[in-house]
Design brief:
By secondary structure, the chain is of the alpha/beta class. The protein has seven helices and ten strands.
């Protein structure tokens, strides 16, 4: 497990899908200053990394959710991953829109889904957990039995962990914030002393005292 987490961390860092910049923080849409930028869509254009990610997702689903019958990707980042992993595993897949279409059959769930089917949701990353919980709720309302979520990366933020627990949603990520921060330091993407600043951000994103090493 730790070997896989480290491999995926190295892969994501190598293509700057997860990029740390503690000295010049990024600004999220919410206005929060962050030392990390995450774009796992970049894995799709890096064939070696893509193979590692998709095979690891398939391995994780087989181990954690052996009874799965259908994969459902989150819109839009999880769709490609659900499709590739569905192909690897020989499973049907679909995806859940952020809202119902305003034309045609007005679907929110795309792809065939029968009531009672056992579903695993495929997501690219988990931060506060809000968007993936919405997807789970849509699937549950449609009569699916959601076994849980598999994701590429999780921040492990307290708010996200609490939300998932409250919604009774299991999530298994290929790698996490702590591991990728350590690998980033080991491979000289960041300084070793930056790890504490990164963890401080993760533990309390609204407290900006970590900026500039304060």
């Amino acid at each position: 497990m730790k070997e896989m987490q480290t491999l995926i961390a190295k892969d994501l860092l190598s293509i700057r899908a997860v990029f740390f910049r503690p000295e010049e923080p990024f600004t999220w849409a919410s206005g929060i200053k962050s030392p990390v930028y995450c774009d796992n869509r970049l894995t799709l254009t890096a064939p070696k990394v893509r193979d590692d990610v998709e095979n690891a997702l398939a391995e994780t689903i087989r181990r954690e959710y052996p009874d799965v019958e259908v994969l459902m990707g989150t819109s839009t980042a999880g769709i490609a991953h659900a499709a590739i992993v569905g192909h690897i595993m020989g499973l049907p897949m679909g995806y859940v829109r952020s809202g119902s279409k305003d034309h045609g059959r007005q679907n929110q769930i795309e792809g065939k889904l029968e009531k009672g089917q056992k579903v695993v949701v495929v997501e690219d990353l988990i931060s506060t957990g809000g968007s993936v919980i919405e997807v789970v709720n849509v699937l549950r309302a449609a009569g699916a039995e959601v076994l849980g979520v598999v994701s590429i990366f999780t921040y492990g933020m307290k708010k996200g962990l609490e939300r998932l627990a409250e919604a009774e949603v299991k999530n298994i990520s290929l790698t996490n914030f702590d591991i990728i921060a350590q690998v980033a330091a080991d491979e000289n993407y960041i300084k070793t002393e930056d790890i504490a600043r990164l963890i401080a951000f993760r533990n309390n994103p609204s407290d900006e005292s970590w900026i500039g090493g304060k």
